[in-house]
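Bench notes, afternoon.
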Amino acid sequence: MKNIILIILLQCFAFADSIYFMPYQAKDAVNELIKEIKKAKKEVKIAVYSFTNREISKAIRDTAKRGINFKIIYDHKTNIDDDKSTIGYLAKLKNINVCTLKGKTSQNGKYYGIMHNKLAIIDDTSIIFGSANWSKSAFDINYEILLISQNKQYIKDSINYFDRMFRECQSY
């Protein structure tokens, strides 16, 4: 009986969520995000509103060099003409498929919404999400949250959500 309880406890802790509160845990949050990206074995799906952080983009570059495939959805308006966005840099690299997505059209037809996600799905086994854009200021000076989870239902729902957005986005 003790062995069964120990196994159950170990399984619970093995799949425990991690949460980080910025700016207080900025260094730990960035390091964990990069660690998750680097441990990918086959595919990483990312949907991010604003992505300017060079450390994270270098981790993606290095991971893609190992043959890991990336699909990255950027918000169209925020990234298409922003010289600080990583979109142009990452789009040129092998194993990285980049696209942009506008939000839905407003009722009056004059405006588009935004693709405001901050989401990563690693090998369909873990997800990273929260309020933090992937920018230096989001981690270092803003009050933001980053959550890493292995919750199977969250992952399943996130994969469906991501795939639907990816089908609607425009290649960069």
